[in-house]
Amino acid sequence: MCSGGFAKCLGISLMPLSIVCVLCNILLFFPGGTVVEKDHITRHAFFLGGILGSGVLMIFPALVFLGLKNNDCCGCCGNESCGRRFAMLSSILFAAVGVLGAGYSVVVSGVAINEGPLCLVNGTEWSYPFSDGDYLSNSTLRKQCTEPKDVVSWHLSLFSVLLVMGLIQMVLCAVQVVNGLLGALCGDCCGCCGGSDGA
């Protein structure tokens, strides 16, 4: 497979992942699926890991990867002015941006999962009762959160999705780094070049 075609596959894969991450981050502003006051929304939602990190910052590399296969790779073989090798090399920079964006989302999600949600504790005050992640192994502690309803599972589920999606995005962007290097060194479509006469 041409490196440009492979990059396009990666770009197609990144787009739905980005959309899922943005939606998850938006849902975090409605803890437990309910509308609450701004002061009662977990601070981790405002870090916008899913919207900025795995969302907006991931759109740029995805669009670049999709555009690498716009021209016929065989028509560029042996033509130094077509810039296909440079395009593959520049895709590495955008892949790095994607890794950073997804990495930011992964860090925010990991911290959020460890600290737990903001909730009304035993019907008295709003706080973060699970600051050391103990609620992950001891489900009985989750009963301390009385409002919003089911906020612990909501928080844990959405940030877990963001964590997994971010890790997948990082892997896909890292694969494009290798693919971009191969495309820059070997050309976008080495198999086509090998079959041409006098090229």
UniProtKB/TrEMBL annotation:
Keywords for this protein: Membrane, Transmembrane, Transmembrane helix
Keyword Transmembrane helix: yes
Pfam families named in the record: L6_membrane
Transmembrane feature ranges: 12-33, 45-66, 86-107, 156-175
GO biological process, one term: negative regulation of type B pancreatic cell development
Record keyword Magnesium present: no
Any one cellular-component term (Gene Ontology): membrane
Membrane topology per record: Multi-pass membrane protein
Subcellular location: Membrane
Primary localization class, coarse: membrane
Family as reported in the entry's similarity comment: Belongs to the L6 tetraspanin family.
Alphabetical list of PANTHER family matching this protein: TRANSMEMBRANE 4 L6 FAMILY MEMBER 1-RELATED, TRANSMEMBRANE 4 L6 FAMILY MEMBER 4
Protein name: Transmembrane 4 L six family member 4
Lineage: Eukaryota, Metazoa, Chordata, Craniata, Vertebrata
Name of the gene: TM4SF4
